Amino acid sequence: MARIKNIELPKDKSTFIGLTAIHGIGQSTAKKICEAVGIDKDKKVRDLTLDDEAKIRAEVDNYLVEGELRREVQMNIKNKMEIGSYQGSRHKKGLPVHGQRTSRNARTRKGKGKVVANKKKEGK
């Protein structure tokens, strides 16, 4: 039962895929961690020894992951909003930040479509 940074790694997956369950560690970083520790990346998480887990924990401590990473990202967004940058204003308005179109899409950021009030056809 491998537990790193308060995240339970999936037992039936290989080590480098299991490490991606930790926020801030993708596949390439997970492979680097496995190489640095000297563990076969295809070894299943359930087959890791306590010594292997300790080595992985020590290596993961060198990276910015989980709560620390989330906190830093939120602080960066807050800073942009405070200094009044263009990206900060987009964050405040809840619109896409990176230059995407908003006339047709952007439902993820803008939310459910808003109904326009009383548009009736003029009939004769």
Structural commentary:
With 124 residues, the chain is mainly alpha-helical. The protein has 2 domains: 3-63, Helicase, Ruva Protein, domain 3, CATH 1.10.8.50; 67-110, Ribosomal protein S13/S18, C-terminal domain (30s ribosomal protein s13, domain 2), CATH 4.10.910. It is 46% helix and 3% strand. The chain has 6 helices and 2 strands, in the order E-E-H-H-H-H-H-H. The chain has helices at 15-19, 27-37, 50-60, 66-83, 86-93, 107-110; strands at 3-4, 7-8. Strands 1-2 form a two-stranded antiparallel ribbon. Strand 1 and strand 2 (7-8) form a beta hairpin. The longest helix is centred in the middle third of the chain and has 18 residues, at 66-83. It is elongated. It starts with a strand and ends in a 14-residue tail after the last helix.
* Mean pLDDT level: 90
- Side by side, the strands of the main sheet go 1-2
What CATH architecture label of the largest domain applies?
Orthogonal Bundle
The percent range for helix content is 40-55%
Distance between the termini: 75 Å
Number of strands: 2
| Total discrete domains | 2
Task: Give the low-confidence spans.
Answer: none
Q: Give me the number of helical elements.
A: 6
Class inferred from helices and paired strands: mainly alpha
Radius of gyration, in Å, reads 23 Å
Shape annotation: elongated
